[in-house]
Amino acid sequence: MTKILLSLHVLAAIIAIGPVTVAASMFPPAVRRVAHGGEGAGAAALSTVRLLHGICRVYAGIGVAVPVLGLATALAMGVLGSGWLVTSIALTTAAAGILVAFVLPRQGELLEELAAGQPVEHGRTVQLAMLTGVFNLLWAVVTVLMIVRPGSTTGA
Description:
- 81% of the residues lie in helices and 0% in strands.
- By secondary structure, it is mainly alpha-helical.
- It is elongated.
């Protein structure tokens, strides 16, 4: 059962978190293209921004499966109290908090402004890119912790 849970946990992480990290990273430059009227601006570019925001929202919801399956796997493996896992849980919580409290709402605000034809300040897209980078970095650290697992029996 442990192997099945672990497999589902890894698959959920790849399928759910991967698209969010990519789409969220693509969002600020896509907004800048629309906002500054450069090459590629227009209805198609605005549709791209809408699509990227939709991907982030949908896959963030699906991403809830990752920690749920992770906790089930940890319970089955008997490692719930391990330091690397507690750290991973804290970092996952921080990443989810950044996504829900900052990234998704700011994406929504920028999208509304673009749709209304309002100007978007460059600094706001830079700030969103920074928050997205922190979100992505936290997931990268969690991934490394899941692979290295200090004290693991994998010999890695």
